[in-house]
Design brief:
Gyrase A, domain 2, Topoisomerase I, Chain A, domain 4, alpha+beta, 2 domains, 6 strands, about 190 residues, two-stranded antiparallel sheet, 4-stranded antiparallel sheet, 5 helices
């Protein structure tokens, strides 16, 4: 039975690590006043009829702290990329000069900063919900093992270990949110 408990614990930690990785990826997409090529992750343009991530059809680079340059591999992709960026609602208007698309990040207003912090908190809450769902699933598996003959003490210890992992990962989410909020609110 202890091997099964160990397997449940490993699966739980692995799933919680994936939830943290997802949160980190989502937080990177939220701009904090500095140009970051990851802001364009998840934006897809029409590439010969197939929705394709911009990073696969163009070179994305940071020119300075407030400017991102997008240079498509093919010149005729300028329009579809420009449309995709405008439709993505990231709050940046692309400037097309015929060779490049430049994205100038305007300075964030106080109101916009607060909106971004709210968005970060929403992502954090989603991460916490994921962690709690993983905990629930692990505890259900432990209870199922208890019905199949696992001792009550071993089940209680395993549930306590799962709860300890849950607390550790939720505090990690809090640290990520705190750091991102500090990054966004710095003028």
């Amino acid at each position: 039975m202890s091997e099964e408990l160990e397997l449940i614990n490993l699966d739980t930690v692995s799933a919680m690590n994936k939830a943290i990785s997802h949160l980190e990826a989502e937080l990177i997409k939220i701009r904090a006043g500095k140009a970051n090529p990851n802001m364009l992750d998840g934006i897809v343009a029409d590439y010969y009829g197939a929705p394709t991530p911009i990073a696969q059809i163009a070179n994305i680079s940071v020119l300075d702290a407030r400017t991102i340059s997008v240079q498509p591999w093919e010149k005729k992709m300028l329009q579809p990329i420009e449309k995709a960026i405008m439709a993505s609602n990231i709050g940046i208007n692309p400037q097309n000069d015929g060779n490049f698309i430049r994205l100038f990040l305007p300075p964030l207003t106080e109101e916009r900063r607060r909106e971004l912090v709210k968005r970060c908190n929403t992502e954090g809450e989603n991460g916490k919900v994921s962690i709690r769902n993983i905990r629930r699933d692990a505890i259900e598996q432990i209870k199922k093992l208890q019905k199949d003959g696992l001792s009550e003490d071993a089940a209680k210890d395993a549930e306590a270990a799962v709860q300890e992992q849950t607390n550790r990962f939720i505090s990690l989410i809090e640290k990520h949110l705190e750091a991102k909020e500090k990054e966004i609110m710095v003028v």
